[in-house]
Amino acid sequence: MHQVSGRVVAVSIRAALIAGGWIGFALGLVSGCVLGAILSWFSGAILSWQRDLTFTVGVTEQLLPFGNQIPVLQRLQADWFLVIPVVGLLVGGFAALVGGLIGGLVAVSYNRSPFGVHVVVEVPDQTP
Q1: Would you say residue 123 lies in a domain?
Q2: Reduced to 3 DSSP states, what percent helix, strand and coil does the chain have, rounded to the nearest 5?
Q3: Cα-based distances in Å from 115 to 8, 107, 118
Q4: What range defines the domain where residue 101 resides?
Q5: Which residues pair with 119 in a beta bridge?
Q6: pLDDT tens digit string along 11-58?
Q7: Measured at the alpha carbon of residue 26, what is the angle toward residues 9 and 82, in degrees to the nearest 5?
Q8: pLDDT > 90: what percent of the chain?
Q9: Contact, 93 vs 28, CB < 8 A?
Q10: Which of 34, 62, 81, 100 has the most CB within a 10 Å radius?
């Protein structure tokens, strides 16, 4: 093996778009699942707070904060096993679009650069 020095003058825009999309999707999926879990947990906490406040103050739930959203909050809390992956996939899809866009922009800006990148590659010796 011997080393050969060279320079990369172009990057595939398609490959950069795909790589950026996959990285964005993976990061967005994880952060979206965490966001979905937090959303489901907070809806349960708000419902519990509403219930305690109803007994303490003695007014109907409709007059309290989030009174009109009680059915939505109950649905978010009860269907947590659906809320978490759906929010994860939605955020992951959006992050994939943003990641692909960023990857494409980086590749395009790199391809427009007159300098390129200096690389050293090992190639096998040509022994017959």
Answers
A1: no
A2: 70, 10, 20
A3: 9, 14, 9
A4: 13-62+74-113
A5: 6
A6: 899 999 999 999 999 999 999 999 999 999 999 998 888 888 877 877
A7: 155
A8: 55
A9: yes
A10: 100
